[in-house]
Amino acid sequence: MIAGKPLLQWVWEGACQSSAIAKVLIATDDLRIAGLATKFGAEVKMTRSNHPSGTDRIAEAVLGEKADWILNIQGDEPLIEGSFLSQIIQGLNPSFGMATVATPLSSLSDLNKPDVVKVAFDRTGKAVGFRRLASAEDAATWSHQHIGIYAFQPATLQQFVGLQPSPGEIRERLEQLRALENGIAIQVLPLTFVSVGVDTPGDVPRAERALAERAKSVSK
């Protein structure tokens, strides 16, 4: 529970706010999650339990769906809002089959935090690499935090899941490296977003403070 509401519901409600998104699905292999999501009104797709990554799960969930792009939104970001997702969709470049988001690191100390994934990209917005740890000497290169939202053109999504997990993906535990290491170019959209991922119970107070601050700014 985050501020009186399930974490997943915050993310789902944010996704539903975007008029650029035609359909919002929750993909899971857990009947408890499915039951909860159904209660707050979400459409649920049950998937196999042996997927190696969230992207593999999404690929199964969208089989038979028709779309220009598939947006994979992680269920641990309660500050997701429709306006932010619409920004992503408006910035998608069809010359890329895959896209993701970066926002400036909030502090140099984030370079040493493995849970804050860093991304480097060139002037054209093409991803150069992703890593969990970076040194202060490389701060200029790894100056952005990767936000775990992915957009795929359907053909690229199916191509991705047909590939074996790559060495970098296994080493860093970052599925996007499977794409880079197999020649799939990733567009990086540099946007401003306050990421408060809830990975452990200890993250809950921080998320609740951020939601309270957002509510205050909206009411002013």
What is the element layout, followed by pairings?
Layout: H1 7-16, E1 25-28, H2 31-39, E2 43-46, H3 54-61, E3 70-73, H4 82-91, E4 98-104, E5 118-121, E6 127-131, E7 144-152, H5 154-161, H6 167-172, H7 176-180, E8 186-190, H8 204-219
Structural commentary:
With 220 residues, this protein is an alpha/beta fold. It has a single domain, classed as Spore Coat Polysaccharide Biosynthesis Protein SpsA, Chain A (Alpha-Beta Complex), CATH 3.90.550.10. It is 33% helix and 19% strand. The protein has 8 helices and 8 strands. Strands 3, 4, 5, 6, 7 and 8 form a 6-stranded mixed β-sheet that branches. Strands 1-2 form a two-stranded parallel ribbon. It is globular. The protein starts with 6 loop residues before the first helix and ends with a helix.
For the CA atoms, what is the radius of gyration?
17 Å
Number of domains: 1
Query: What profile does the largest beta sheet have?
Result: 6 strands, mixed
Task: Output mean pLDDT.
Answer: 93
The beta-strand count equals: 8
Helix content: 25-40%
Shape descriptor reads globular
The low-pLDDT segments are none
Given helix and strand content, the structural type is alpha/beta
**Please, what is the CATH homologous superfamily?**
Spore Coat Polysaccharide Biosynthesis Protein SpsA, Chain A
How far the N terminus sits from the C terminus, by CA atoms, comes to 26 Å
What's the CATH first level? Alpha Beta
Entry keywords:
alpha/beta; Spore Coat Polysaccharide Biosynthesis Protein SpsA, Chain A; 6-stranded mixed sheet; two-stranded parallel ribbon; 8 strands; 33% helix
